[in-house]
Every structure is written in C-alpha cells, then in structure tokens.
Design brief:
Length: 180
C-alpha cells in the first residue's frame, strides 16, 4: 500500500458542480485525483482542523462514539475504483490492542474521518498505478476515464460533440456504453 496525503481541491473546468480532491503520494510524485460533487467539496472544506466549529459535524460524532467505545481509527484504505466509484475502508481497532475491523465506506466520508482523527490515508498500489493523474499537453494533469462518474462522462461527451471533437466524443461514448 502507498500512503497519500490530502493536498487540496480544484474545480473541474467546464464541468458543472464537480471538483477534484487531490491526494498526493507521500514522498513521491504521483497524485490521485478523485472527482467529488459540490456538496462533498463544501463539507470537506469546512472540516479544516484549524477552524473551530461551534457544533460537531458527523465525523466528530462518529469519532466521539468510537472513543467512548474505546476504539480508534487506524487508517483509511482506498481499495478500488470502478466506473467512477471509489471503494474504501475505515480500519478501526480497540485502543487496548484487540483485532482491527474494516468498515466499508464512501471515500469522501472516509477522508472526512481521516481529517478529523488525523489518521493516515492509504491506497492499494495497483489502484494508484492504474489511476494516478498523468501529465497531458502543457503540464495539465489528466484523470483516468475509469475514475470519472458517468454523469461527468456524459457532460464531457456533449461538450466534445459541440466543439466537434468527435474522436474524444467517441471515446467517451464507448466508456459510457461499456458501463451499461
């Protein structure tokens, strides 16, 4: 597994209501760019540990519950990605050293728990190898088609047709059809 760190967010240009969460390989050069919606983006932005919150957010509540049950979050693991859906686990264990438990979780929820608890985020090596952002023309980073939700692919395909980029439109259409 490869450790990642959350380094920030960026708006997906020309695609409505989507952002990317940027996870950088710790001690390396690769980035895993995860498309997220505007609601998830706004929530993760508010979880900044430097900002004091008047009332706890749900990750705070879950962390408080785990603490009262004498558990701690050990790590977040990004297990796989398929058709724009990232699968992840939150790994928790008893503070007194018992057996750990993996809990299946949406990636944005897992990252929010990692932010609140300062737990490390890991990705399986094969996921990072397949999905890391590659450099495109002019130093721009490109997302893997597999990491994009179908809704973004459809919007991008419509934009490609409008701009008469039929080769790109065909690639996007093929990816969308493969998912059906």
């Amino acid at each position: 597994m490869v450790e990642l760190e959350l380094v920030g967010f960026a708006e997906l240009k020309k695609i409505s209501s989507f952002y990317t969460m940027c996870l950088h390989e710790k001690g390396g050069t690769r980035k895993l760019l995860v498309p997220i919606g505007d609601v998830e983006y706004a929530f993760l932005q508010r979880l900044d540990l430097k900002n004091r919150r008047v009332r706890p957010f749900m990750p705070d509540v879950v962390n408080n519950l785990l603490t009262k049950l004498n558990y701690k979050i050990d790590m977040v693991i990004i297990k796989s990605v398929s058709h724009g859906i990232f699968s992840s686990d939150i790994v928790v264990s008893p503070k007194d050293g018992g057996e750990s438990i993996s809990l299946d979780c949406r990636l944005t929820d897992a990252v929010s728990m990692a932010i609140v608890t300062e737990a490390p985020i890991f990705v399986k090596k094969e996921v990072l190898d397949a999905e890391y952002a590659s450099k495109a023309r002019g130093d721009r980073e490109m997302l893997s088609l597999n990491s994009l939700p179908t809704s973004i692919l459809k919007e991008a395909m419509d934009m490609a047709v409008k701009s008469e980029n039929y080769e790109l439109a065909a690639q996007l259409r093929n990816e969308i059809n493969m998912r059906k």
